Amino acid sequence: MFVLSPSLLFQGDPIWIVIDGVTAGIGVLAIGVGLRGFFFDHVGLVNRALLLLSAVALLLPATASRFAWEANIAALLVTAVILVGNYRQARRRREATEAVAA
């Protein structure tokens, strides 16, 4: 995606370098979770599809097109909701397992 924005090659304004680098990193994480189907716990098929769609939006640099910034924000929110929900699900499952074992 560096073809769309030189900020991913560490050229340009430092704030855009950081923003584009962070969103691309989160996009790579979303691709990994979406393809593998596991984060802290099993990720369902619908959430995996949403993560993969979000990852595509996150890999676009914020300065790449007119609506890339809005797409990055929406994709960050979707990714955060899914990953935080997955963490909470895993924590509840672990607590229930510990309660049964005790």
Summary tags:
3 helices, mainly alpha, 102 residues, single chain
Structure explained in plain terms:
By secondary structure, the chain is mainly alpha-helical. It has one domain. Helices cover 71% and strands 0% of the residues. It contains three helices and no strands. The protein has helices at residues 14-36, 45-59, 68-101. Helix 1 (14-36) packs antiparallel against helix 2 (45-59) and helix 2 runs antiparallel to helix 3 (68-101). The relative contact order is 0.15.
Largest sheet: none
Which percent band covers the strand fraction?
A: under 5%
The tally of strands reads 0
**Roughly what percent helix?**
over 70%
Q: Name the poorly predicted regions.
A: none
Topology:
Blueprint: H1 14-36, H2 45-59, H3 68-101
Compact description:
The protein has helices spanning 14-36, 45-59, 68-101. It is mainly α and 102 residues long. It has one domain.
